Amino acid sequence: MSKVKSWISAFRLRTLPLSLSSILTGCIIAYSHNTFSYKIAILAITTTTFLQVLSNLANDYGDAKKGTDNDQRVGPERAVQSGAISLKEMRNGIIISSLLSLFCGIALIYFSLKDYDLLYLISFFALGIGAIAAAIKYTVGKNPYGYAGLGDVFVFLFFGIVGVIGTYFLQTHTFEPLLLLPAISIGLFSTSVLNMNNMRDIINDAESNKKTLVVKIGIERARIYHTALIIGAIISFTSYLIISESSTIYLICLIPLPIFILNLKKVWSFKENKELDPELKKLALSTFLLTLLFGLSAIL
Predict the structure, then answer these.
(1) CA 47 to CA 106: how far, in whole Å?
(2) Among 131, 145, 156, 210, who pairs with 187 as Cys (CB 3.0-4.6 Å)?
(3) Containing domain of residue 32, as a range?
(4) Nearest to residue 51, comparing CAs of 84, 87, 11?
(5) In 3-state terms, what secondary structure has residue 200?
C-alpha cells in the first residue's frame, strides 16, 4: 500500500457520517427556524471533519504505543500497528490535524460571533480547545480517559449535546431547551456505536488494561446498556417531533427504526465478538440516514 493510501486509510473516513450527524442536525433545526448560514454550516462541517480525523489518528497512535493494537485485535488493522505509518509520522499527523482543527474552529467562531460579546468568543474558543484535547486524550498520554471507562461520557457530550446545540447556537445565536431532545438522541446513538465497538474488543481491551465501560460492567450488562441507549435515542427523537408539533412529513425520519431493532436483536444474539464488526457500520450509517431524512423533512 502506498503512503498516500495508508494515510487515507488512517483517516478512517467511514467514521465521518456519524460525527457529522450532530452538526447536520443543528443546521437542519436552524434551517427549519428560518435562520441559516451556508458559510457557518460549511465551516462547522469542515472543523468537525478535521476533529474526527484528529481523533482517529490519535486513537491509532495511542493504542499502538500502549500495545492495545496487537494480533489479537478483532477489528481492522490500524496504520501504526501494520507498520504502514511510523509512530513519529503519526505524531506529526496529529499535530497537523490539530492545527487544521484549530484554524477552522477559529474561523467558524469569528464569522459566527464577530459582532457579539467577547465572552461568547472566549467561551466557544475554550470549547474548541476542549474538543481538540478530548480528541487526543482519548487514548494518548499517561491517563487517557478512554482507558478509564469515560469514553462514553465524552462521546455523548461532544457528538450529541455540544454538536447539536453548539451548531444551532452558532447559526441562530439563541438556545432553546427543546433542542436537548434531538441532541440527546444523536448523543445516545453515537454512544451506542462506541459501546458496540467496545463489546467487540472486550477481550483484547481487558488483556491490554484498557478499562472501557464494557470491560468494567461485562458483556451481559453491556447488552442491557446498549438496549437502553438505542431505545432512549428513539424516544428522545420521537418526543422532539411530537412536542415541536412537526408535520406528518417528519414521520419519514422513522424509516431507519427497523434497522435499529435489528441491531438490538444482533447485540442479544451474537456468539462471537467479531460478528459485531459489520454492525458498527450499519448503526453509524443508520444514524446518519435518520439525520438526512430529518433534513429532507425540513426541506419538504
Answers:
(1) 9
(2) 156
(3) 16-299
(4) 11
(5) helix
Where is average pLDDT lowest: 113-127, 214-228, 254-268?
113-127
Distance CA 51, CA 133 (A): 10
Amino acid letter, 117: D
What integer is the mean pLDDT of 119-145? 92
- Cα→Cα distances 18→49, 73, 211, Å: 11, 23, 24
| Identity of the highest mean pLDDT range in 74-88, 215-229, 246-260 | 215-229
**pTM > 0.90:** yes
In whole angstroms, what is the distance from residue 167 CA to residue 45 CA? 10
Q: Tell me the C-alpha to C-alpha distance, in Å, between residue 168 and each of 19, 26, 52, 78.
A: 16, 5, 19, 35
Considering the domain boundaries, does residue 155 fall inside one?
yes
What's 215's domain CATH number?
1.10.600
Inside any domain, residue 87? yes
Task: Report if residue 293 sits inside a domain.
Answer: yes
Total number of domains in the chain: 1
